[in-house]
Amino acid sequence: MSKPTGELPEGISKFRDQVAKKIKSYSSQRDGELFEMIRYHLGSEQSANSPGLQGKAIRSSLLLFITEGLGGDFHQSLPAAISLELIHNFSLVHDDIQDNDFLRRGRESVHAKWGSNQAINAGDGLRDLATLALIELSDGPNPELTLKATKTLGSYSLRMISGQVRDLQFMEAENITMDDYLSMIGDKTCALLEASFHLGGIYAGASHDTIDHLTRIAKLLGYIFQVRDDWLGIWGKENKFGKPVKSDLIEKKRSFPIVYAFENGSDSKIDKLKKLYFSDQKLSDNEVSRVNDLLNEIGAKEKTNEWLKRYWDKILEQINEVNLSNDAQSDLIEFGKYLLKREA
Predict the structure, then answer these.
(1) 103 three-state secondary structure
(2) Residue 1 domain flag
(3) In this structure, are residues 152 and 142 in contact, taking their beta carbons and an 8 Å threshold?
(4) Is the residue at 157 inside a domain?
(5) Contact 40, 12 (CB under 8 A)
(6) 2 within a domain of the structure (yes/no)
(7) Model pLDDT for residues 162-186, shown as the tens digit of each residue
(8) How far is it, in rounded angstroms, from Cα 193 to Cα 107?
């Protein structure tokens, strides 16, 4: 039975414990400060009360969910799910350095606790550990499958990093089009979601056509995830989103509503927005309010929601093309609704 819209469906969230236990077991086998930092970031410190993993483990859980939903054995794809989760976490460690964030999941980031230089090492260690996990935890008579999964994960990881490079470049750019923005998040945000669906299809023995449909759905879900995140970064509720209200405006991020406003506002409103948003000084509270007013006048808030619905309609068109079990299809729809309505 599916959970309410505000929560992950049980058919997906049930796999989180599998991922957490395996990561805790695998990461506990190594000693030294590098692995102390890695275990701290993951939440798998060696204590009886440690949950084994911070975060929702959405991408790794989706990989196992898709494997099972297509009739495969999720235990076979568990090493790939562990690897994917470690890759995602390596990117988070490096993101915290690049964004100068001192909090991650409600506690000090590795960057805050050990400094930037050691945090770089922790992120690098997580990336290598991801590759080793896929190789060392895989068993069975099919090494070609492990090699294929390793190559697939590496390709998606490179796409994610490429997207991150462009995201940082955008922070210094003024003329960013909607196509530029969508291409960037299509790599930075969507790549690992696509990886989860693609790998689930591989381990379930799905056809190329099925995998193509799966990755298209995953990319659309990635768009929804990021565009909703951008909406929350301006109009979200601070007590639920976990960041200051209008945090994306304070940081002058080139988020979806901002890019939309610069492409679709009147010349006079765009000029006002440019003077505020592209200044060298940090925005004051009053200036943040003025930017927000301009976004509302241009209609960016409503248009952001319209684009979200557009992506959702495309997902509903695609989902019937994939031979998922009825329960899995229902859970996938509920997952999409969760992304559309999430507040954190």
Answers:
(1) strand
(2) no
(3) no
(4) yes
(5) no
(6) no
(7) 999 999 999 888 899 999 999 999 9
(8) 25
* Cβ(210)–Cβ(204) below 8 Å: no
Instruction: Extract the tokens encoding 225.
Output: 């995830």
Q: What CATH number corresponds to the domain at position 50?
A: 1.10.600.10
b or e along 36-68 (b: 16 or more beta carbons within 10 Å of the residue's beta carbon)? ebbbbbbbbbeeeebebbbbebbbbbbbbbbbb
Total-model pTM: 0.94
Query: Could you tell me the two tokens for 272?
Result: 């006002």
Q: What share of the chain is helix, strand, coil (3-state, %, to 5)?
A: 70, 0, 25
- The two tokens of residue 40 are 């701290």
Residue length of the chain: 344
Coil, strand or helix at 104: strand
pLDDT tens digits along 24-65? 999 998 999 999 999 999 998 755 566 678 889 999 999 999
The rounded distance, in Å, linking the Cα atoms of 3 and 283 is: 40
* Residue 261 near residue 276 (C-beta atoms within 8 A): no
